[in-house]
TrEMBL record:
InterPro entries: 4Fe4S_Fe-S-bd, 4Fe4S_Fe_S_CS, Cyt_c_oxidase_cbb3_FixG, Electron_Trans/Redox, FixG_C, Ig-like_fold. This is Cytochrome c oxidase accessory protein CcoG. The chain crosses the membrane at residues 43-61, 90-111, 164-181, 201-218, 339-358. The lineage of its organism: Bacteria, Pseudomonadati, Pseudomonadota, Gammaproteobacteria, Candidatus Thiopontia. Residues 259-288 form the 4Fe-4S ferredoxin-type domain.
């Protein structure tokens, strides 16, 4: 390294040391004002955060003149782009939850708390709140001084603007949550005219207060003490997991970089504390994996930027496993037994979800056979069975349906000669009778199939197997 380059490195290090004096490890007794630095993981974090825009704007999407996605809990209906899912299809929801739970376990096993660092509601909202705080109050050093300063007109004006912005986001969060469960435009009208229901007002108040307190005040303490995932991750991670890790082989022993001084044996870490400064939970990654680490990888961006300034290679802090740092052989990620088991479960769950979606119909029929009596002998010698049809219309429109039978030669269906009207989103019951000449009976019971078909939409069909019962 030339003398000029050495001077530049030392000057950059001096600036970092001057700033490092303001930072210390988080122990929860004061607010953590994390430094913001650009880098690939910061960019990735913002891209991941942008997915939460769906939460805010999703309810405003329209489909066939109605809300595209609506979870109508009072009506026990879930509308997703024209597809209506009713409680009878709740098994698919169980598979979705199973898939997401296993996916979380797989990601945590492979890469640590990636969900926490990039997608978690709390993490994203804290990032947004602190971004507003930095715009109004300045860099971390200025914010700390402002917090300690005596109250005055200037401080009150700055703080009032910040908290107003926080409250606006919190209120919009509450409204957006409620909007997934009722028509969003009617909801705004109800709120603005003060005619919303007690449930709507209560949910809005709960989410507004929760967002405001958790993201504005508790911040990293919610991750450290309230969220159970920090503890659960301990049983998911192992020594082969790829997580942000400090390369102690390369970095130790640490030594401050001084002009004109070269200490033999020192590692690449110059103890600038920038990795701690950018950490939203105040963790020192150099001490090893910590339960407070949310795997946001911002410490990697910070360390790489410092390495550039002092002409050292990137990667002092990087995604790496403990075993790899210790020089042990590490199995490929996708060949680890636990990961393979997770993937098999996820595949089965996903297959069930796809099967359910492909086979879900706008019409459904259930047939209940009358048990008292099981059959009746008519005066003409024929046998009659009574059935109650439960016809479910999963569409938004009133329809007419026809019911036919097959599988029972010679049987007559009585009571279904004309089409039935069925209400949208409701179960409509009808009673029908099956009559069969006694000579046509081949046994005490015979399978019979009821076929349902929409008149206005012939592509909507359903089929149900029941039994026709006669004497021995």
């Amino acid at each position: 390294m030339s003398e000029r380059e050495q001077d530049q490195c030392c000057q950059a290090a001096d600036e970092l040391y001057a700033e490092a004096g303001e930072w210390k490890i988080n122990t929860g007794e004061e607010t953590i004002h994390a430094k913001r630095m650009s880098g690939k993981f910061r960019t990735l974090k913002w891209l991941a955060a942008s997915t939460w825009l769906i939460f805010f704007f999703g309810p405003y999407m329209r489909w066939n003149d109605s809300q595209a996605i609506l979870f109508d809990i009072p009506g026990r209906q879930y509308h997703i782009f024209g597809l209506t899912i009713l409680p009878q299809d709740v098994w698919m929801l169980s598979l979705v939850l199973l898939f997401l739970a296993i996916l979380l376990a797989v990601v945590t096993t492979l890469f640590g708390r990636v969900y926490c660092g990039f997608f978690c509601f709390q993490t994203i909202w804290v990032d947004a709140f602190t971004w507003i705080e930095e715009k109004l109050e300045g860099a971390p050093g200025k914010r700390k001084k402002l917090d300690k300063a005596a109250w005055g007109v200037d401080k009150l004006w700055i703080k009032a603007r910040k908290h107003l912005a926080w409250l606006v986001i919190s209120v919009l969060t509450g409204v957006s949550f409620v909007a997934w469960f009722t028509d969003v435009f009617q909801l705004w009208a109800d709120y603005l005219t003060l005619s919303a229901s007690a449930t709507e007002w209560g949910t809005l108040a709960l989410f507004t207060a929760g967002t405001y307190v958790l993201a504005g005040f508790l911040r990293e303490q919610a991750c450290l003490w309230l969220c159970p995932y920090a503890r659960i991750q301990a049983v998911m991670l192992d020594r082969e997991s790829l997580v942000p890790t400090y390369d102690f082989n390369r970095g130790e022993p640490r030594g401050r970089l001084k002009k004109g001084e070269t200490i033999e044996g020192n590692g690449d870490c110059i103890d600038c504390n920038q990795c701690v400064a950018v950490c939203p939970t105040g963790v020192d990654i150099r001490g090893g994996l910590d339960e407070g680490c949310i795997t946001c990888a911002l410490c990697i961006d910070a360390c790489d930027s410092v390495m550039e300034k002092i002409n050292k290679p990137h990667g002092l802090i990087r995604y790496e496993s403990i075993d790899a740092l210790e020089g042990k052989n590490v199995a490929p990620l996708m060949k680890r037994p636990r990961v393979l088991v997770y993937i098999v479960i996820m595949t089965l769950a996903l297959g069930g979800i796809i099967y359910g979606l492909l086979n879900i119909s706008g019409l459904d029929i259930k047939v209940l056979h009358e048990r008292q009596p099981l059959y009746v002998l008519l005066s003409d010698g024929s046998i009659q069975n009574k059935y109650e049809l439960k016809i479910l219309n999963k569409t938004h429109d009133k329809m007419h349906v026809t019911v036919t039978i097959d599988g029972l030669d010679g049987a007559e269906l009585v009571g279904a000669e004309k089409s039935f009207p069925v209400r949208p989103g409701k179960v409509t019951p009808y009673t029908v009778y099956l009559r069969l000449p006694r000579r046509a009976m081949s046994g005490q019971s015979t399978p019979v199939y009821f076929n349902l078909e929409g008149v206005e939409k012939p592509e909507l069909t359903s089929r149900y197997e029941s039994m026709f019962i006669g004497p021995r």
